[in-house]
């Protein structure tokens, strides 16, 4: 599943329709693609993730009570593609710009 992060903070009064319009306008992507689109507020204590499935639009939101999400500051792109692992890391509080997963190993046989 594709995950795309919008780096600039948004006004969190925006709902599904406004977020879908931002996906189309600012991110130049289709909100109907089935991808997850990650938006954060100015204080980085909330995220919204709109997505569309076969039955319609849904909106997932997470609010942190005492912490902040570590938004990728070192990246210069306005829109950042994430892996599913990076999304989980970001939601768990990790800085995704310095964390990388273990290298995948492929074996032909067991020794």
Describe it for me?
By secondary structure, the chain is α+β, with helices and mostly antiparallel strands. It has one domain (3-92). It contains two helices and five strands. The protein has a five-stranded mixed β-sheet with strand order 4-3-2-1-5. The longest helix is centred in the N-terminal third of the chain and has 10 residues, at 16-25. The mean pLDDT is 89.
Quaternary structure classification: single chain
N-to-C terminal Cα separation, in Å?
34 Å
Number of helices: 2
Report the count of strand segments.
5
Shape: globular
Strand content is 25-35%
Low-confidence stretches: none
Largest sheet: 5 strands, mixed
Overall helicity? 10-25%
> What Rg do the Cα atoms give?
16 Å
Strand order of the largest sheet: 4-3-2-1-5
Structure class: alpha+beta
Count of discrete structural domains: 1
Write the H/E string, N to C: EHEEEEH
